[in-house]
Design goal:
heterodimer; A: 166 residues; alpha/beta; GMP Synthetase, Chain A, domain 3; four-stranded mixed sheet; three-stranded mixed sheet; 4 helices; 23% strand; B: 251 residues; mainly alpha
Chain lengths: 166, 251
């Protein structure tokens, strides 16, 4: 293989992937989203394994292409693939990622302590506009697969939430 | 065992593909915006699940690529149950089917989380979390309409009664069933039916509606063996209209 003259470390690869955004959540990189499940920098052709947020997410192909291109820009020719070997849940969003989501106007998902989604977890959500927790789920389905629509009784506005997925 | 697994995965994928397309028929005409979004999102989920299952068949089991598997088979090669083929009808039927089907689908995935065929087990562990939202939506609407007006209650009851024999048909047993159970891969349709019956019965009762008799003699079987309702062929024709006109078309 002559396609790469230099070996790259996993950290260098990760740093290139920090440039790749989820087109439906433009404030977060796929690294902050917790979508990067494995980086094999030592293989002859480095391999990046991503895990989908939702199996049916229509942005998966675009994300893979963007990742390949972002790596290429740094001279890294890697294989990028999706698989389900490492399951994505909303717990993989870092605290910084959740903060960015809230600033973006998207209420972050609560931390899920086990596999079960309880009524309480669905109800205790803070409005990203006025920070009141007096809110209710309007519909579990929003403008993208990862969003739900909620309503805040305090500021009387509808808002979107990144919905918790176990 | 390999063939039995293929059979099961095909049943799951075809159910999801066909019902996904039916759900998408509400896009743009849902009775209110939130419901339009809900059925459009569930359509996207289901067609995505079908794609992931066809991909497993292609990558691990030597079957053709997902587009060919999904769209280029003959009608009698599809393994979906007849329930998912039925037209969307009025909203009461759509909701009754959504409720009865999605609980059965969630249970099927739950029964597969420890399947020794790892790609399927991984898929099951992931999809389970997504389907929780489908059943949450279905349960909410069933309860609300059952407790709404006399008319909404009567219509939900009638829709469940109409859908019931088709719903029982979801659990049609094929030759694959016993092989999968013996291999510890999947406990089988009888087990799934009994879990489903106990789950949906308690929700239907709780909503103040009556659970129809689970009379096996009335179940509408056939789909799992390639015998389909009159509604599948026109749906397949519609889904493949462009590719049949121009197999190399890109869009």
């Amino acid at each position: 293989m002559e396609t790469h003259t230099k070996n790259f470390t996993a950290e260098e690869i990760r740093s290139a992937l920090e440039q790749v955004k989820d087109p439906e959540i433009p404030v977060l990189s796929i690294v902050e989203m917790g979508m990067v499940s494995k980086i094999d920098a030592d293989a002859e052709v480095p391999v990046v394994v991503l895990t989908p947020t939702f199996v049916g997410c229509p942005a998966l192909n675009l994300i893979r292409q963007s990742a390949v291109e972002a790596l290429k820009e740094r001279g890294i020719h890697a294989e990028v693939k999706f698989d389900l070997s490492d399951k994505w849940t909303t717990n993989r969003l870092s605290p910084q990622a959740k903060e960015k989501l809230e600033k973006f106007g998207l209420a972050p998902p609560p931390y899920l302590s086990d596999e079960e989604l309880t009524e309480e977890q669905l109800n205790r959500v803070r409005c990203p506009h006025c920070h009141s927790t007096d809110t209710t789920l309007r519909t579990a389905f929003g403008s993208t697969l990862c969003r739900a629509i909620r309503f805040c009784f305090t500021c009387r506005q509808a808002f979107e939430q990144f919905k918790p997925v176990a | 065992m390999q063939n039995a697994l293929k059979e099961l995965i095909l049943q799951m994928a075809d159910d999801a593909l066909v019902l996904g397309h039916r759900n998408s028929e509400w896009t743009g005409i849902g009775p209110m915006l939130e419901e339009d979004l809900a059925f459009s999102s569930m359509a996207q989920d289901k067609i995505g699940h079908a794609l992931a299952l066809y991909t497993i068949l292609h990558e691990h089991m030597g079957e053709p690529d997902p587009d060919k598997l999904g769209f280029m088979r003959k009608e009698e090669e599809y393994r979906c149950c007849q329930f998912v083929e039925l037209p969307i009808g009025e909203y009461d039927f759509t909701l009754a089917r959504h409720f009865l089907y999605d609980h059965a689908e969630l249970i099927r995935y739950e029964m597969l989380v420890n399947c020794p065929f790892e790609p399927l087990a991984q898929m099951a562990r992931k999809v389970r979390g997504e389907l929780k939202y489908h059943v949450l939506h279905a349960d909410t609407f069933l309860r609300e309409l059952a407790r709404g007006t006399e008319e909404s209650k009567a219509r939900m009851q009638a829709a469940i009664r109409y859908a019931w024999p088709y719903a029982l048909g979801m659990f049609e047993i094929t030759d694959a069933d016993a092989q999968l159970a013996a291999a510890g891969a999947y406990a089988g349709e009888k087990e799934r039916r009994s879990r489903w019956l106990s789950t949906v019965s308690s929700i239907i009762n709780d909503a103040g509606l009556q659970v129809p008799e689970p009379d096996e003699a009335k179940a509408i079987y056939g789909g799992r063996k390639g015998y389909h309702s009159e509604y599948l062929k026109p749906l397949l024709d519609e889904m493949t209209e462009v590719v049949r006109l121009d197999p190399t078309a890109e869009w």
